[in-house]
Amino acid sequence: MTSSVITPNKLKFHVFRDERFIDLNLYQFGWERTEPLHSYGPHARNHYLFHYVISGKGKLFANEQVYEITGGHGFLIVPGQITTYRADEQEPWEYTWIEFDGLRAQESLRLAGISGAEPIYTPANQETGDKLLQQMLYIVNNGNADPIRLIGHAFLFLAQLVESSAYRSYQNVRRLRDFYIKEALSFIESNFQRDITIEEIAAFCGLNRSYFGKVFRETMGESPQAFLLHYRMARAAQLLKETRLSVGEIAQQVSYDNQLHFSRAFKNVHGVSPREYRQTHFVAFAPTDNG
Q1: Residue 236 DSSP symbol
Q2: How many C-beta atoms lie closer than 10 Å to residue 248's C-beta?
């Protein structure tokens, strides 16, 4: 799924040719020890392109500005942005790069605090910057690995980019998590009566199941499965208190086709059976006189 060009001590270059991945995909990646005054552009990319400069120095020409970039820093080029970059004559760059795109790309870059308008990456400290470099070099040095493995490491690259950036936006992280949780709660409220899965809720939020579960637990203090169970049992308790529906009918109202399974779940949450709960909590509403 990849094609490669490797020149010992000078260049490693891979083209990724698998279009199955939507959340995040790779297009090309590599490493190069550039020649003095090596340059590229002016040119516009179709996808995001991130360079991490290992050593040397050079310049990025973008946004009608000139950015000086030295070892330990990086720069981002966004789709459609016309740029030129050039290595120094005396101390040319050694750098590694990844070209990528997908549904998760823009969100991650925003959280990292880098964009077309603010293209320079600066690590919060050398240790986190080194970890980012290691993630990128793993992809470059394993360009012929299984595509799914490479995409997995691409996600790790993006996660490390966010975590290591000196411009990381903690406020946006919290705001984005709050948005996901609001979307998840809205979906649960509208669909708890049918047999929904955690995968469905995560997909509705635009997240993979694993990451959604992590965000939900950290924000709500329990897993999505536990929250969904407690929500259903709370609605069941409300129906037991306020309606004359049978236990079987209430079970179906909260997605349980099997009344016995519903009764067990209800007792695990409330400590008593549905019938016992109704005996002590039922509220008899007087008929309304509309005459």
Answers
A1: H
A2: 15
Q: What pLDDT does residue 177 have?
A: 79
Number of H helices, E strands in the chain: 10, 11
Q: Bigger pLDDT: 43 or 284?
A: 43
Going by C-alpha positions, the residue among 190, 169, 183 that lies closest to residue 216 is 183
Q: For the segment 37-60, what is each residue's pLDDT rounded down to a tens digit?
A: 999 999 999 999 999 999 999 999
Question: Environment class of residue 262 by beta-carbon count within 10 Å: exposed (0-12), middle (13-18) or buried (19+)?
Answer: buried
Could you count the other beta carbons within 10 Å of the beta carbon of residue 31? 21
250: alpha, beta or left? (left if phi > 0; alpha if psi -120 to 50): alpha
Nearest to 236 by CA among 202, 204, 272, 200: 272
Residue 19 has a pLDDT of 77
Contact 4, 150 (CB under 8 A): no
Contact 213, 184 (CB under 8 A): no
Length of the chain: 291
Nearest to 60, CA basis, from 44, 83, 91: 83
* SS3 state at 173: helix
Give kind and range of the element (H or E) at residue 7: strand 2-7
**Is this structure's pTM higher than 0.70?**
no
Displacement of CA 29 from its chain's centroid (Å): 21
The answer to whether residues 139 and 98 touch, using CB atoms and an 8 Å cutoff, is yes
**288 pLDDT more than 50:** no
- The rounded Cα 262 to chain-centroid distance in angstroms is 35
Encoding tokens for residue 177? 């998590």
Helix, strand, or coil (residue 232): helix
Ordered DSSP codes for 58-71: EEEEETTEEEEEET
Distance, CA of 109 to CA of 105 (rounded, Å): 6
